[in-house]
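Suppose you are handed a protein chain with no further information: no name, no annotation, nothing but its sequence. What can you learn? This example shows the usual starting point.
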Amino acid sequence: MIKDIQGLHHVTSLASGAQTNNDFFTKTLGLRRIKKTVNFDAPEVYHLYYGDEIGTPGTVMTYFPFPNARRGRAGTGEVGTTVFSVPKGALGYWEERLSAAGTPNLTRDSRFGQERLRFAGPDGDGFALAEVDSDSRTPWTGHGVPADVAIRGFHSTDMRLTDTAATAELLTFMGYEKVDAQGEVTRFAIPGGNDANTIDLTKIAAPHADQGAGSVHHVAFAVEDRETQLEVRRALSDTGYQVTPVIDRDYFWAIYFRTPGGVLFEVATNEPGFDRDEDTAHLGEALKLPSQHEHLRAALESRYLEPIHD
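A reasonable first move is to predict its three-dimensional structure. Written in structure tokens, the prediction is:
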């Protein structure tokens, strides 16, 4: 069994427009844009990162905004809901703020004793805020969001699967423990992990999802460093998973593999961090390009990447 995974590192999704995406996460949710870069494999598309002040693993939501991308179709084999952590008593503030911003699909529910506010992102993305009374992470307080109600980072992701058994076995191998079950939902958590250490598996009968704008592309799990990552890669490969070689993503190193339920998993290092090429005070301000794409800067800025107005 793997003992080195700490919880979530980041969640990466698809969007249909950079400006709308940026406005939602910074102006509506009050997160900080911590990096403005491009997709390694499609440099004409942004890769935008949002999180706390420094992009602490477990707080980082990232997006590939493909201009005018068609909306995804929800189904199985995907993350259906990405859940953020907020303090106890914060949902009233967020319900009022999100309603004033015209955020669709606002509904209240409760899961495993935690009150939640569900809502949709600009491309129909499934989100929720969960009230947590033991999350000590320091929030970013952008665009007027008070510190006592601000988002702390991720709480969990909810994966929708036709059959949860094989993914449950994988999570257990990765160090997660089953902590509760409610109807068709089973909750797993890593004891002593970071505060983004929870995964829910929901069994549903539905067609397989069709990815597009609003879909989660992959879920990344955090490990401390490259040495630990190699140990995790070896353990997964020895168990039969087809794991990619280690890939340098500038702000972390990554490996990827497809889960039995169809969700793409990544294991990412906490090092070197998002301040490797920008001062902390100015994270996310300048367009940062991977070295192999630096020669494309003029064309990317003039022809492909829409200006983002903060």
